[in-house]
Design a protein that fits this description.
alpha+beta, six-stranded antiparallel sheet, Thiol Ester Dehydrase, Chain A
């Protein structure tokens, strides 16, 4: 029997993005989720002076936050509906400094299991140059689901 990928409900995804983008930390750091899809997420951040460290370039924590966020949301839709997700390991490499413009992080889920998921993300500057890359191991937490009004997926072909 063929294994069909579930189809994310566009209403759920829209509600999810609105909820995340309105939450305190993304607002505080001026980051926003631009796209969430099955196994993929895109996060953007317009750089401002408060993102810079004393040498005039983006603080490494900003890159780490973008990679953490992009990997999290790339893996999120595969998590069971009754579960939440937490990052348990984050590894990253800084490839090039940045100081102005918009940073875009593209995350991709590499493996999605019932308990553990693994994802990667690359951060690009406004010239589409890679400035950071990282990987993340994430763990599903049963009973910690994000409660939204819309169902996560559209009905499948056999439903």
């Amino acid at each position: 029997m063929p294994n069909f990928d579930p189809i994310p409900n566009p209403e759920y995804v829209s509600e999810l993005m609105d909820t995340v983008n309105a939450s305190p930390f993304p607002h505080h750091i001026a980051m926003r989720v631009r796209e969430v899809a099955l196994d993929r997420a895109v996060i953007e951040l317009g750089l401002a002076p408060y993102h810079l460290q004393p040498f005039g370039i983006v603080h490494g924590g900003v890159f780490a936050t973008l990679i953490d966020t992009a990997t999290f949301w790339a893996a999120f839709l595969r998590v069971p509906e009754d579960s939440g997700l937490v990052n348990i390991d984050l590894k990253l490499n800084y490839l090039k400094g940045a100081a102005t413009g918009v940073l875009v992080a593209e995350g991709f889920a590499i493996h999605s299991g019932k308990t553990l998921s693994y994802a990667e993300a690359t951060v690009y500057n406004s010239s589409r140059e890679r400035v950071a890359h990282g990987t993340s191991t994430l763990m599903a937490l049963q009973g910690k689901a994000l409660r939204l009004r819309s169902p996560k997926f559209l009905p499948g072909p056999l439903e």
